[in-house]
Fold each of these.
Amino acid sequence: GTRPLWESPMALFLIVLIAASLCVVASGAVLVVAWSSDGAELGMLAAFAMSVSVLPLVHGLTTPGVLYEQNAATMSSVMLALPWASIAVAPLVAPRSSLGRWVSRRWKPWVSLHLVLLLGLAAGLLVRPSMLPAPQFGAASSVVVACLSLVVCGALSIRHLRLSWISGSVRPLMVAVGFAFIGASGLVWVARAPFTAGFWLAHLFDIVGVLGLAIGAFIAYRQDRTFTEIVRPLVANEPLSAFELGLEPLVHRFVAMLETKDVITRDHVVRTAAHAIRVGEHLRLPGVEIHRLGLAALLHDLGKLSIPDEILNKPGKLDAREFEIVKAHTIAGQALVAQSTVLADIGPIVRGHHER
């Protein structure tokens, strides 16, 4: 509708100031975790969340009738928020594309440049509130920008829903819901005037979305930080494909033991898990089967922990006795995963991975 629901500039100023400040803090916390753990996808998510926090903060600060008179920055800042944020996460929409692979290897300069330009834009709007024209509610250009931003947010929401489905974890689900709410907030431009019910609802969607995305990402990545280090070669090529397998501590310990035993084997199982998951997705297997397949691929050579180092690392050809010891690693691997009721199900795959 076009009728104001609650026309209060001071309320808008206070609500947005408090909420956007909280969102900036939450986004900053995610960025710190990303930087310390060298998490490419997490860093881009943090840049996205920061964009839809800082520019809405400018939107609140420049509310006419409080600190500023009538100005263009109030609307231009919030209009730019979603498109600018979408640039930060564009590589994640197609992670296997040339851009996605390139940025995943150079994510820190990418995120740094994005945030420097973001802060420069925010400062410019605060110093010169009329430096950019104010968009109009219901204008064709405003609606197009809002819809394109919704498409990006929708794609990333679906991506994390898929990860939640494969892993059986609620952590990616929080990120998915966050993207959905943020994308929906852009539809405020379909409205005809400020302070309508849709106007206030869009602000609520943005606040809930940013906090949900930031908190969900922080929890998910913080808890799996050790595993991030283990599967770095995999994460660099396909962010999160095998990241959220719902791995229990025993899996972390097994893979860490493999790394200590033989780095070559550790890297091999990581690559195998990456290919197995992609094959499972290509075959459109159910999520639970992709989960099982990924775990089995990651742990298929676990039995090599039982092979003496002098045999495992022997540079020449194995003799008959040594070859029999190596062949027994499939049986040893099944025995190791049988220690866990969660992993026992993949035992037959581990046992039979050399049969054909």
Amino acid sequence: MDPASVLWEETVEPGASWSHVLKRGTVLRIADIEGGANVGALFYNFECPVERYNMADTLKAQHIARLTEGFVLYSDMGRILCSVVADSVGWHDPIGGCSNAALVTAKYGESRYQEARNQCHRNGRDSFLVELGKWGLGPRDLVPNVNFFSRVSVGEDGGMEFRADNSMAGTWVELRAEMNVLTVLNTCPHPLDPNPKYAPKPVRLAIRRGTPPGPDDSCRLSRPENGRGFTLTERYFL
């Protein structure tokens, strides 16, 4: 990424949360600083938050069970919220969900803010709710999330296996906003991560202006359904 094109940069610390409205046409780069990061993510149409990321439509429309460059994130209205325009990882998990307080306590033990301060054990669900509350949203607005940098494989018997070491230090993924997208992130551990130690990792965020998707855009052309999704999205802004 050309440093001169960067509009904003910041680090999301381990176990922290973040939210921002990505303006249409901007690109968010998320970089795994140390390796082994997990970034839970939710996406909403900022102008009308009842329209939000839909995991089922995203997967079935593109015939996929993972996210990487060339794929898009659909809303429940058939429009495209974000496109994955570049990716050095190759596999991001759209099916594993997020942790909750009970799971984190059972897995890692009790660690409250009152005693541990910023080293306390945080969970994905509550972290999402903290950020959603800043925008007037709450528990009824939670939907299945994406987990960037994590890989979950599904066996023939339907069993789900977390693949360690999927993301190395310095790897990254770039998302182009196709709408004005309320983006909610947290860096809590993946719920299927077998590591018995609570060890979330930081990530670095950078936002820049992007290039509008033309007729030869790789995300538009990767699936016939995506062409229709882009048409619906572009018509929304006429």
